[in-house]
Amino acid sequence: MTTSRLKILPSPAVVEQNSVNYIKFIASLPRFEIREEPDVFWISVDAPVFYFNSVFNARLDGNAEQRIETIIEFFRTRRDWFTWHIIPSSQPENLAQLLMALGAELLETIPYMAVDLDDVQREIPLPSDFTWTTVRTHDDLASWTSIYCHARGYPESAYKLFNIFADLDLTEKSPFQLILGYLGNTPVSTYSVFMDDETAGFYSLTTLPEARGHGIGTAISIAAADLAAERGYQIATLLSEPPSRNICKRLGFVDGFGAMDIYRLPAR
Q: What is the DSSP code string of 34-97?
C-alpha cells in the first residue's frame, strides 16, 4: 500500500520572499549600489534591466511621503527614472497613490505563481534537438547575457550585463544557477533558478525571436524544474510575465499568491 504526500503550496509571504531574496542576492554583486534600511531597500547600477534600478520591499510605517522623496533624491543624481516594485506585503496601503501623485505610472502587474515540483507536467512534446546546460564559464555567460539582452530588446547593453554578472559564482554550489538552452548547437534561450531556504525561484526566461514558437520556453522551464528538484526543492515560484504565462499554466503553476505592481517614476 502506498501513501500519497499531502501537497501544500506555500503562503503568499513565502512566495514573494523568494523574489526579495533574489534581488538582494543580485544587488550584492560589486557593481551595484544598495541602500538598505529596516523597512525598504533600493538598488542602482549602470544597466538597462528595469529591476536593477529599483525600490523593493517597502514597509513604510510613518513619514512615507518624506521617505519617498529621499529615495527619489538618491536616483536624481544617477538616472532619469527608476522603478518601484509593490508586492502584497508593501506598506502603507496607499503607497501606489502616493507614488502616482509624484508622477509614477503603472508599467505592469505580474502575478506570483507556484507549483509543487512533483506536479510539473513533463509529458509534453518538446523539440528533439533541444539541450541545456548550466553556465560554468565566462564564454557561456557571454552567450547567456547576449541572448537575454537581445530577446528583451536592448542588445547593445549585453556587455554591461556581462560585466555585472562576471562577478557571479558560477560553480555548482551557488544558490543562483543560470541555464542556457540550445537548439542543435546554437544557444537560443535563457532561464535562471535562485534557491533560498524555502523555495526555488525561476527568473529571466527568454528565447531569441527567431527561435520562438517551437516549444523552447517550455523545454527550458522543465529543465529549471528538474534542476530545482535535483537540489532537493519541493516548491518552485515565479513572477509570470505575459509572454510566458501560458507556459507556466501548462506546466502546472497556479496563481493566488498576489502580484507585483511595477511603477516607473521620474527622477528628474
A: EEEETTEEEEE-SS--GGGSEEE--B--S-HHHHHHHHHHHHHTT-SEEEEEE-TT-BSTTHHH
Count how many residues are written for the chain: 268
Containing domain of residue 30, as a range? 12-111+259-266
- 94 and 162 together in one domain: no
Closest CA to 238 of 62, 10, 34: 10
State how far Cα 33 lies from the chain centre: 19
φ, ψ of residue 26 in degrees (nearest 5): -60, -45
Residue 169: all three cell numbers together: 559564482
Q: Is the pTM of this model over 0.85?
A: yes
In a domain, 227, yes or no: yes
Q: Please tell me whether residues 232 and 215 are part of one structural domain.
A: yes
Q: Measure Cα distances from 90 to 53, 57, 97 in Å.
A: 18, 6, 13
State the Cα–Cα distance between residues 265 and 268, nearest whole angstrom: 9
Compute φ and ψ for 123, nearest 5 degrees.
Answer: -90, 65
Number of domain units in the chain: 2
Question: Tell me: the pLDDT tens digits for 87-97?
Answer: 999 999 999 99
Q: Locate cell 525561484: which residue?
A: 201
CA distances from 251 to 5, 212, 224, 231, 247 (A): 20, 18, 12, 19, 6
pLDDT tens-digit series, residues 12-42: 999 999 999 999 999 999 999 999 999 999 9
